[in-house]
Fold:
Amino acid sequence: MEHPSFISANELYAKLTTDIEQVNGKRLELVAKRKKNILKSMIILGTIALALQIYLYTIDPASLGLLFLSVPGVLIISWLIGFRIGGEFRATYKTLVLSIFQEIIKDFNEKMLTQSLINESDLKNDVHYQLANSMSTSTFNHMQLFDRAAEWIHTEDHFQGKLGKTAFDFLEAHAGYTQETTNSNGGTQRQEVTLFRGILFSADFNKKFKSITTVRSKAPVKKSLRIIFSIIAAFFIIPISLSIFGSFTEDPESGFIFGGVILVVILLLFRKFFRKKQQQVELESVEFNKQFNVTSDDQIEARYILTSSLFERLMELRQRLGNHLTLTFKDHNVYLAFAMKNSFEHHFSKPITSETIALEHGTFTSILSIIEELDLNTRIWSKD
Structure:
């Protein structure tokens, strides 16, 4: 049976009219408060500057113009007031964002129940939200989405819930590591390098994995570099290596053969001792192999997970979310990382309109659609 669709942006706007009016009312209060505080600051600073100007003018007429020195002070205070009020509005706006999230989940699950796709027990509206710093670096590194570990991470907007039968959570993350470099004077400089910035998504796959399987979208640039390197190796490195080894023997032909054997042995030893534990997995889909690089420490389980139907879904997902897509199948979860601009924010100077709700609706449904696109609500496996 076909799964239901998400509530439309217009329907969502109609359901949240009262919430939107309340947040807009709070916004107008804060805008008025900001104007009032800035006016007070202008009056106070202007009065002080004028009093000083009059006093100094009686001492030295050349001091005329001190009044204009209050202008930078007014600008700085205006910025500080706007920053503080912006933070106050942000907290209010996040309550509306949470309401949008809850309504989308609630509507979808009720439709699933109507179609007898879930039970009453699955209908718990168990939704959680945490504003900031809800993930540690150890949790991030446990996902094994990237080649190297992160040393620091900043997160915000962490949402957790259950869509149909599938438990999930996602958040915005900025993770990286610290790199030390030596400058021209011999001094050491520390620089923070970004490893990932975007959305981290995890969902229950309803299967306990014995291995770790990673799927990464291939970058066209890296592929081009590999081709260039192969050409260089074919025309320069290999002949030079063979010539060097061939110089050790009297017979050039046998020298080249000897050199070729030694070169192959070196490459095999390098591969054995320096390759990662995970092995490359070549799947039957030529197009999928062109778009993704798959590694796993269990070839059989990797092929068991990555079915032909999942090939198509992952390729469609990459087309929608962009080229920088990484997935890991580990424990009983699927973890995803993909780039997305900072979301769930709104400046207090602008009113909340139907376009605002449509934007947030689009972001949420884009992320939650991953569950449907990967068909995670169809329980084809057991947990064991």
Remarks:
- The radius of gyration is 30 Å.
